[in-house]
C-alpha cells in the first residue's frame, strides 16, 4: 500500500525530495501547497516530478460522501478514506471563530454508553495525514483557515497517541497551518498514563477530560474506562497536567436524565473537583439523543439548575450550546445512519 503524502512532516518530505535529486526548495513549495489545500495535480511542479511522487504516494484528500448543514450553520462531513473506511468531521461556525472537530480513529474501543462512535467497534487508528486531511477539507469548504481545532470526533485520541502528537506538532508548525496550540483541544475518556505523558510534552494544548459522573459507581455504569482508572487516579493525572503546563483542565460532563443530573450530583461534583488542588472548568453538555440509546437528556430546567448549583458553590462552569442536533452532529451518528440505517 502506498504511503500517504499528508503523513509527512516538512523534514520527511524534504528528505524524500532530495533523494530524488530535486532542489530543496521544491519540498517547501509542495509542503506549503498541500497544507493550503491545493490539489496535488494543480501544484506548479514538473510533470516528471509529479509522476515520481504519485508512483510512491497516495496524494488524494478523502472523498466527501455526504455533506449536510444545520440550521445553525454547523456542517457535517462523512468522509471516505482510501481503504473505504468512513469517518466524520464537523465544522462549527461560532462567535469567536471557526472550529473543526476531527476524528482520530475509525470506530472506538472505549464503549461509552452515551456515545455512538463505538457502537460498531474499533476498526483502526487514523494516520497523521488522515487527521490533518479533515482540517484541510474544512478549510477548502470554508474558503479560509479554521481558527480552532478539537479532537473530539470519533475515537479516543490518546489511544492513537503517537499519531495525534505528530499531528499536533504538524498543525502548529509555522511551515504548515500554524494553528496556535491554545486554540487546540484534545479530549480523552481518561487514559491516565497518557495524560501524564501528554503533560510531559508541555505542548500548551488544552486538555479536556470526559468525566460525566461525580463518583466511580455512576461512572462505571456509563464508561468502561472507569473500571480501569478511578476518579481519584484521574484527578491526580489532571493535577499533574496542570502542574506541568499551568493550563487549567476542562472536564466534560454530559447530563443524563436520572443518572448524573440531580442537585446531589452537582454538589458531589463540586466537592470532588475542589479537592483536586488545581484550576479547572466544567463544560456541561446536554446529552445528544441517538436512535438506539435509551439514555435521555434532562429537561432544560433541570440542566440549568445543575449549572446554577455548580456556579453558586464556587465552580467554574458553563453550559455548552448544542449545535448540529438536527443533522446528527454528535460523534458517530451520521456514519451509523448511512451504514446501518440509523440502527
Widest sheet: strand order?
A: 3-4-5-6-9-10-11-12-13-14
Counted beta strands: 14
Largest sheet: 10 strands, mixed
CATH topology tier name of the largest domain: TIM Barrel
> How much helix is in the residues?
25-40%
Summarize the helix and strand pattern as letters.
Answer: EHHHEEEEEEEHEHEHEHHEHEHEH
Strand percentage lies at 15-25%
Radius of gyration equals: 21 Å
User: Considering the protein shown, what is the CATH homologous superfamily of the largest domain?
Assistant: Aldolase class I
**Shape estimate:** elongated
Distance between the termini: 33 Å
CATH class of the largest domain: Alpha Beta
The number of domains is: 2
Describe the structure.
This protein has 343 residues and is α/β, with parallel strands linked by helices. It has 2 domains: 3-58, DNA polymerase, domain 1 (Orthogonal Bundle), CATH 1.10.150.530; 63-340, TIM Barrel. Helices cover 36% and strands 20% of the residues. The chain is built from 11 helices and 14 strands. Helix 6 links the parallel strand 10 (184-188) and strand 11. The two termini are 33 Å apart.
In summary, what is this structure?
The chain has 343 residues and is an alpha/beta fold.
